[in-house]
Design a protein that fits this description.
This protein is α/β, with parallel strands linked by helices. It contains 12 helices and 14 strands.
């Protein structure tokens, strides 16, 4: 699948590059050699990620991330995103022009007026002169020819300049997205109502971080910034909803360093497994990953729940495993519904709030009829490119159609919050900044 994607992106790059080259040469005919050189350099900048993915699948892309300088890698992905955004914007504009043209062609043409018959007694129009005799009518016809159109050179230059508004906008948006991906996480605050008599829980806060992806444009310096942002909130409990590692056990060292640096006020740090923890386990074992996380101070919950005492009251915290099919040579993991029943079965129905961690937000479909108060998820990165949201349907070109991409959702009193993540598949975020979620327990 990744190889096919790399091939498709390479072909799209080539077609869009040829199209832009043709437009540049039409606009600046005197600079053909310079335009060819710039287009060739641009293609060389864009080609490596997609070509490596087409040749060596996902491992080729990972090799580029590990060995290329960060500045070059970020510039390459930013340029790639610029080209794709330009193609998308141009396609939308071309479709709009075609639709307007079709509407104009469907309008009925104005009726041509029929010459009226001469009134009785009106003077007759003289007949055309014999062949070879121009006569006075020919002179009138020559004089009636339209005057040559005066070309407004200033207007022509303005129209030519505006044709480059789309590529300039695409570059600005994409490079802005590269910078936005490196910004400090924003804090998104939500409230979780709890019973009024549970006074020890009023004002308790839970900070959630998700999808850090250590090793994928996430170095030690960036990790320290995210750690400091988490600690600055001074939340009582910290939770990590999966994909702290990216794809290899070697990333466990930095991941453990990150966990050891977290400072929840009540000392509780809870972790649920994401799909990338299992991807990293292919280079070691699931047990080695879990042990490394637990030795760093995290409570790794897999289809289980814990009681967290807060004064004289309690909070139930559970987590379910990442849903997945069994791989060859590996035992099947517990089905999602069984995992939900197991975790929720360990939470007593005593009026205390019940919080579930699930890396994949799609779990909410199976869980929303079960007894819990809030599910915290991640996995989607918010799409990394957000075009807004219509009701419960977020709009993003990076994810297939679905509902639970980012933000707060509710179904008959069951709540789901999907964190947009702190890392990413690509180092670009547009209208979807890195995020920390802060949940505050408030009296109902």
């Amino acid at each position: 699948m990744f190889q096919l994607g790399g091939l498709v992106v390479t072909l799209v790059n080539g077609l869009l590059g040829l199209f832009i080259r043709r437009r540049l040469r039409a606009s600046f005919p005197r600079h053909g050699a310079l335009i060819d050189a710039l287009c060739a350099a641009g293609f060389l900048l864009l080609a490596p990620p997609a070509l490596l993915m087409a040749i060596a699948s996902f491992s080729g892309l990972r090799a580029l991330q590990r060995h290329a300088p960060d500045a070059l890698s970020l510039l390459s992905f930013g340029a790639q995103m610029s080209l794709l955004v330009y193609g998308l914007l141009y396609g939308i504009a071309a479709a709009a022009r075609a639709a307007l043209g079709a509407l104009r062609r469907r309008r009925p043409a104005p009726a041509t007026p029929t010459p009226a018959a001469p009134a009785p007694g009106a003077p007759e129009i003289p007949e055309a002169p014999p062949h070879g005799d121009p006569g006075p009518q020919a002179a009138l016809a020559v004089d009636a020819r339209p005057a040559p159109e005066i070309v407004d050179e200033g207007r022509r230059r303005l129209v030519a300049a505006t044709t480059w508004a789309l590529p300039v906008a695409a570059v600005a948006v994409s490079m802005g997205g590269v910078l936005a991906a490196r910004k400090m996480p924003v804090v998104m605050r939500i409230a979780l109502p709890v019973r009024r008599e549970l006074t020890n829980l009023h004002g308790v806060t839970i900070a959630q971080i998700s999808d850090v992806h250590v090793g994928s444009y996430m170095d030690a310096e960036r990790l320290d910034e995210i750690r400091d942002a988490m600690n600055a909130i001074r939340a009582d409990i910290h939770v990590v909803t999966g994909d702290l590692l990216d794809n290899h056990v070697s990333q466990l060292e930095l991941s453990a360093r990150f966990l050891r640096g977290l400072r929840p006020v009540r000392g509780q740090l809870v972790f649920c497994m994401g799909n990338h923890e299992y991807i990293a386990a292919r280079s070691a074992s699931v047990g080695a990953i879990v042990r490394g996380l637990e030795e760093a101070g995290a409570q790794v919950l897999v289809d289980e729940a814990r009681e967290i005492r807060l004064g004289g009251d309690r909070l139930w915290m559970g987590a379910i495993d990442y849903p997945s099919r069994a791989r060859p040579g590996q035992p099947a993991r517990r089905p999602t519904r069984d995992g939900l029943q197991r975790a929720l079965g360990q939470m007593r129905d005593d009026g205390a709030p019940r919080v579930l961690l699930s890396h994949h937000p799609g779990t909410f479909v199976a869980a929303r009829e079960l007894p819990f108060d809030l599910m915290l998820s991640g996995h989607t990165h918010g799409g990394q490119i957000s075009l807004g949201r219509i009701g419960e349907y977020p709009l993003t070109p990076m994810l297939p159609a679905g509902r639970y991409h980012n933000g707060l959702f509710e179904h008959r009193g069951r709540r789901l919050y999907v964190n947009a993540g702190a890392g990413g598949w690509l180092p670009v975020r547009i209208n979807c900044p890195p995020e920390i979620t802060l949940v505050e327990l408030v009296p109902a």
